[in-house]
Amino acid sequence: MSTEEDSMTDVIGAGKVAVVTGAASGIGRALAEAFSAAGSAVVVADLDGAEAEIVAASIRERGGDATAIQVDVSDATAVEALAQATIERYGHVDVLCNNAGVSTFNLMRDQTLDDWRWVFNVNLWGVVNGLQSFVPIMRAQGTRGHIVNTASIAGILSGIAFIGPYSATKVAVVSISETLAQELQIDGTQIGVSVLCPSSVDTKVMESERGRPAELGAEHRTEMAESVRLMIRDSFTGPTGKTPATVAEMVLDAIRANRFWIITHPDENGASAARFSNLLASFPTV
Ligand SMILES: NC(=O)c1ccc[n+]([C@@H]2O[C@H](COP(=O)([O-])OP(=O)(O)OC[C@H]3O[C@@H](n4cnc5c(N)ncnc54)[C@H](O)[C@@H]3O)[C@@H](O)[C@H]2O)c1
User: What percent of the chain stands above pLDDT 90?
Assistant: First the structure.
């Protein structure tokens, strides 16, 4: 393929549009900045509209094209409005990153139904709402596109103490992504799918409660859970932690290569291998 044809089929670059949810902070912010640095226009979508505007303004100051949109991804009507606003502003969308996510931190026996509801509303329904509103638009365009759903290494390891609801949603995000990839292929569309499974990344995910709706009440972590949470949070900036910018570059590389799995850290390789070999060993041989 010639360079000219390459650029016509790229989903990142000048004339292309990327929508990123949870883009006011952490991995989402780094994604928005990386898409912009690569020439795409970006929609910086987040529950925190003021922070989203700060991110968009800083991208514009560097010469990029960025639009901030306040959205609660757990609200289907608001996500539909995000899709419509994107089309009104840019006319098309080439990359969608369903990235917004939150977590509680407690043993499951100490998590309330409202803890479960909040985490499922954002992490699971946020992704479903994003797909529901954007996939029809992207299919109708008939052009190449790409969808990245942010899961977690928890989506592969599956059972992780203290983050039961979170892990359950991230397993679901992996599953939804695998199904979506199959169905878009059956469809014959040119829309690729990737699932991002990070381990420790230096973000504010451990302070998720800042975006928890007031009507769900405050989270009540036990003392033990709180001390484990602080230990894990500190590991995000330690030798095993990665920066959001490093993760964002991995995502852009995976989109360009149309690679499904984006695993950011080598650390959990052993635990993943143990889980899968245990599972395989449990299949009957006859
Ligand atoms: N940081 C890590 O180590 C790590 C590891 C695995 C997976 N992840 C995943 O990465 C994604 C990004 O998180 P992060 O680590 O950058 O955390 P972060 O807290 O720094 O950023 C999350 C962003 O999502 C936004 N958000 C929260 N609820 C929202 C809602 N209802 N609607 C719209 N936006 C909302 C927040 O305002 C925030 O800007 C999440 O899905 C998270 O589960 C992070």
Answer: 92
